[in-house]
Amino acid sequence: MVVYLANLDGQGLVFTYGLFGVQHDELTAEKKKVISTLYSLLSQSADRVDHLQDESHGVPREGPKCTTFVGYWLKSGDYEKWKETDEVKQFWDGLPEDAGVWREVMTVPKSRYMFAANQHETSGLATMLGLKASTDEAYWGVYRHRLSANPDEYTDPDDTFTSPLATSSKAKPDPSKKVVDLSKSSLSDKIRLGRVTISKIPDNLCYCREGQRQPNLPPEELETWKQKLAPHAVSWMNHLDTERNKNGVVSFTFNIAHLNPKPTLDPGTDLEVDTDAIAETNQLMYLLDLAHFELAGRSFKDHVKLRQTTFEMYGPGGAHSQNGKLSIWVELCILKSGDMDAEYVGCREGTGLMVLENV
């Protein structure tokens, strides 16, 4: 089965990968202004900006509760210059203590970044990097193999990317590791006024963005997705979200991504209702390390079944191996202690990496 990886050829590649969010119980005029201003500022500098909203995941809602922008800078230096501009500083420093605005900005060398897709379609950082074909699929540990294929001076080739933390669900935790309770990371309705800043994170935190795109699927393929793939996919995602200590999940969110945001963003658009804007579902997650992600994937039966069925349907000889249109992609970052700059201004308890504030 052919997959398409980001082309990481070249020396000294260090990217900036930024998540910027605005929480809103209702889209007031002030919230809309903040969203529009943030999008405008990001668009002035980032090589790419994706527009996401929280997905209700089948539960009726009156509107989105969070707007998230994913900003990509091919050169980290460009982000550093941008964040020091007066306009950006004034925006961030001027936020009130109940703003509901946050950022999680990662600095990532190519040796700790991976992108893969089943279709020759670029997303995320690969939009700037381009793609190359590969056949390294269908086995556990493939993410590690892909990471090791792009060495640079920023990462020890013998690094196992192991977290110094263990979760409270471990029956026999390693005495050398600090124990954390990740159940507290679930999002709360309680607002934490003021600023929470996180500049140091535990080594080897694993960030992942997954995307599923269904562009005009033929009836037969759409039925395959609904009957044979979607139930396992939803079960897998819910497992990661709800069993956080078991899987080492620090943060997990369901999102809808707008594939082609317009130059001027309409903050009031509900991507679940505006069907022309719905391009793909996304999941954004942080885990303690890659090993937790790998173990969760191998041990959860619905994820094993999801992989198996996907390969049967889209792999060699499968019903949709030649003309299948379902698009699935993933990008992943392994983060070291100093790779993260996060701040939460008047956000809900449990937002993002807030659980790591005192770790």
Structural summary, described in words:
It is a single chain. The chain has 359 residues and is of the alpha+beta class. The protein has one domain (3-356). 27% of the residues lie in helices and 30% in strands. The chain has 9 helices and 15 strands. It has helices at residues 29-45, 76-83, 86-93, 126-129, 142-148, 219-242, 244-247, 290-299, 301-314, and strands at residues 3-6, 14-23, 48-54, 66-73, 101-109, 113-117, 131-134, 165-167, 178-180, 191-198, 205-213, 249-258, 278-287, 327-335, 340-348. The strands form 2 sheets. The chain has a 13-stranded antiparallel beta sheet with strand order 7-1-6-14-11-13-12-3-4-2-5-15-10. A two-stranded parallel ribbon has the order 8-9. Helix 6 packs antiparallel against helix 9. The longest helix has 24 residues, at 219-242. The radius of gyration is 20 Å and the shape is globular. The chain starts with a strand and ends in an 11-residue tail after the last strand. The model has no long low-confidence stretch (mean pLDDT 92).
Descriptive keywords:
13-stranded antiparallel beta sheet, 15 strands, alpha+beta, globular, 359 residues, 9 helices, two-stranded parallel ribbon
